[in-house]
Automatic annotation (TrEMBL):
It comes from Arundo donax (Giant reed). This is Uncharacterized protein.
Amino acid sequence: MLHKYYETASGFFFFMLCLPFQKTTESG
C-alpha cells in the first residue's frame, strides 16, 4: 500500500513540476 502511494505521489509531483515548464514554453 505504501509503495502504491509513493508511486502516485511521485507521479503527481512530476506532473506539478512539468506544468510550469509547459506554460513557460508556450509563453516563449
